[in-house]
Amino acid sequence: MDEDGAPDNPGSVLYTVPIRTGQKDNYNLGVGFSITWSEPLDKKLQQQCKEAAQAHIDMMNQQTANKRLDFEIARLKNCGELMKAGIRFAPGTRYASICSDVQVRGVNFMVPHKHSIPSPSTSESRVSESAADLGAPIGIQSELPSP
User: Fold this and answer.
1) Which of 47, 66, 72, 120 gives 124 a disulfide partner, CB atoms 3.0 to 4.6 angstroms apart?
2) Is the pLDDT of residue 132 over 70?
3) H or E element in which residue 80 lies
4) Three-state SS at 84
5) Ranked by mean pLDDT, which of 15-19, 32-36, 73-77 comes out on top?
6) Is residue 99 classed as helix, strand or coil in its secondary structure?
7) Alpha-carbon distance 76 to 68, whole Å?
8) CB 132 within 8 A of CB 138
9) 50: which strand partners?
10) In a 10 Å sphere around its CB, with 0-12 CB exposed, 13-18 middle and 19+ buried, how is residue 108 labelled?
11) What is the pLDDT of residues 39-63, one digit of tens each?
């Protein structure tokens, strides 16, 4: 500092002092192994926890099954109503398979049934020798009409 009390070179390093630290390069490798053994003191609480977890999983599976059933019933209802109205996806298109397994009686599904065909009685089953009995013309006109 000067006589006026102000530093000569403010912000610059005026001098350095060497200090011995003893720091050297150090390479270290540590390997460890640890084992822990834990035994619950109350096995009843552990069993209850397992049962509660299984009950929760079962409930979630049932809710998923219920939602799937709701979806399938809604799909069946909507596809059936659309088929009754004559509305459907064109075969071979991307969404045609959505309703492909839905059957609506009288629209795309015929109920299996049988028709009875009565056999003719003996009086109706006569053999005819005449063409007139079969409804054929009796005579043939051989004359051509005159001009």
Assistant:
1) 120
2) no
3) helix 43-84
4) helix
5) 73-77
6) helix
7) 12
8) yes
9) none
10) middle
11) 878 888 889 999 999 999 999 999 9
Residue 83 CB coordination number (10 Å)? 18
Dig out the tokens for 80 from the structure: 């059936």
Alpha-carbon radius of gyration of the chain: 51
Neighbours of 137 (CB within 10 A): 8
- Please tell me what DSSP assigns to residue 134: G
- In sequence order, what are the residues at sequence separation of 6 or more whose Cβ sits closer than 8 angstroms to the Cβ of residue 105? 111
- CA–CA distances in Å: residue 46 to residues 36, 40, 42, 53, 58: 19, 8, 7, 11, 18
The answer to whether the CB of 45 falls within 8 A of the CB of 38 is: no
Q: Tell me which amino acid residue 121 is.
A: S
Which amino acid is located at 103 in the chain? Q
Alpha carbons 105 and 108: distance in angstroms, whole number: 6
The Cα 110–Cα 78 span in angstroms is 20
Q: Are the beta carbons of 76 and 102 closer than 8 angstroms?
A: yes
